[in-house]
Amino acid sequence: MSVHLRFLSLTVTTAEAERTYRFDKPATVITGPIGTGKSSLLMLLKHTVGGNAMLTPAVRENVLSVQAEIEVGPERFVVKRAIEGDPANHVDLLDPDTLTLRSSFPTRATPGETTISDYLLDTLGFPREQVAARRDGVSRPQNLTFNDLYAYIYMQAREIDRQVIGHLDSYFDPKRKELFRLMFALTNSALMELKRTASALTDELKSKTSEHNSVDAFLLASDPRSDDELRAELTELRDTLQRAESTLTALRFELSEQSAADTALREELRYAIQIAQETEEEVVAARELVEARQSVVAQVELDVSRLNRSAAAIDQLSPFRFVACPRCMQSLTARHIAEGHCVVCLQPDPAEADIDSAAIEETRAVLRQQLDDAHHIEQSDITHLHSAHQQAQQASFLVSSLRRELDAQSRDVVAPRFDAIADASSRVATLKASIDAVTQLRDSWSRVRAIEANIREIKKTRRQTNKDIKNMSQKLAARQATVIDELSRKFGDLLRNWNLPWVDTAVIDNDSYLPIVNGQPLESQQASGGGIATSINVAYSLTLLAFGLDHSDVLTPSLLVIDSPRKAFGNNDSDRERAAQIYDHFRTLATIYGKRLQLIIADNDPPPISSGSFGKVEFTYENPMVPGVVHPGPDHVDRIGDEQVN
């Protein structure tokens, strides 16, 4: 039984107005002249359920949002979606009675979130699966979405005479086929998982084979030796290294014994160096002390000199009464001099004690005694400095003698062993480097063997997976044969009932699940005229729809949206008759199945037949689909058509 999907109404909202279009009958025909919005209404239906719809400028510039009341499986609810901006990236789910918000679903896959596609597929009871698709030669599993399923529902005007459910789209075609198998129970989750596994194993095998070829080419280019030759060489190198390390150990032991023999000499040298350092430090300290003593002597001599000059000045100048400045010779008599101050410098006169000759002489005697003491100590420090300097020279000479003795001993005994040790160490290092190089090459060979083992395991797993796919497919093969045979029969009968004289044979291909008429696919029929291709395509979709309604184990959607079923039809009697037969079949389906199915059809002209099962939505240039927007009329449509042609 087909999965139930039905649009009950569509509400279009602009800034100025709002209009609701209802789809109450099993079939609804939307008519009107070109450019009045028939195709746009069908696109808006797709838009409301999260699809990628091509919206005209008139819709994008004027329509704010659309909402549709729909039945999905056992549920009835309202979906609402904005036309432009970020809000258009979500579809709101509303209560059908109160229009209160239930949930909001993103239209694109978002980690951790349920999309509107997920919700609709779950509500329909349609399995959510991944297709083992490949792109650019790489396995890229693709999620089957509600938008993919909608390709079986919506026959667009631009595709209706060109391709069958997007079969010319190489990216979508694997999804189309897998959806067909799912709808008609020609596959299951286990088989699809096996196919994804087989595709992933193919990629892994390709990657490992490429890796194996790269490593193998590197080995051939870098070193011609085989793994067996490298293994033999590695054994020989390790034996040689063991002997070289033994020789190096023996040389180092001999050197250590010789080093023990001159330990006493080295200890004596160490002690002499220590004494030399101490005597040098003593010289530095004595020199600093002499310099300090010399500073003291200089300071005392300066004090004595200053005292002598002061005493001489007092003796010679104090008797004079200055009436003029002794420097610039200007008169001093006109100045006011305070009592007890010098007439020249204006400072207070010194106390009598400061110019007492006896006091000055006493001070001079003290300074002379200090100067004598300082000279005596200075001489003592200089003597100590000379002594320390001689000791330092003697210690330095001893160090030099001991070093010459140790150098002579090392030159004759130790140096030859050092040279031998250096040669042995170099030999050991060279051998180790050679071992590392061979080991790396052997590691590469080990990697080759590991990759080869991995490739064998992948091939084994892939063989088993393909075997499982084959076994499971064989179990489903009988059903596929039955389903395809019945679909082919119904499809052929339908085309022949339309009295199409060019139809000899009409079947559904067992591999591609596409219509084949007179042994040719749809694209080959286009040369015979667009009306022929359109008839084949419509008959194919109607066949799938009716088959699903008749079989309880089939998951085809119960809705079919057809844009321009008379596309490329002429206006002669036979074309009008064919159009009437197609619409008669619409009426038959609507009568037989009632509201179990829904047909929504957009056509320029009114239906060529009448039926109580047909609802009608009619647009005119005065009353176009977008409410509140004045249509520019047929002249504008003709002008746009001329521009597109030119």
Produce the secondary structure layout.
Blueprint: E1 5-14, E2 18-22, E3 27-31, H1 38-48, H2 57-62, E4 63-72, E5 75-82, E6 90-94, E7 101-106, H3 116-124, E8 130-131, E9 134-135, E10 138-139, E11 142-143, H4 146-149, E12 154-155, H5 173-183, H6 189-222, H7 227-261, H8 263-317, H9 357-497, E13 506-508, E14 515-517, H10 522-525, H11 530-550, E15 559-563, H12 573-593, E16 598-603, E17 614-618, H13 634-645
Parallel strand pairs: 3-16, 3-17, 12-15, 15-16
Antiparallel strand pairs: 1-2, 1-4, 4-5, 5-6, 6-7, 8-11, 9-10, 13-14
What does this structure look like?
- This protein is α/β, with parallel strands linked by helices.
- Helices cover 56% and strands 13% of the residues.
- The protein has 13 helices and 17 strands.
- The strands form 5 sheets. The protein has a 6-stranded antiparallel beta sheet with strand order 2-1-4-5-6-7.
- Residues 638-646 have low confidence and may be disordered.
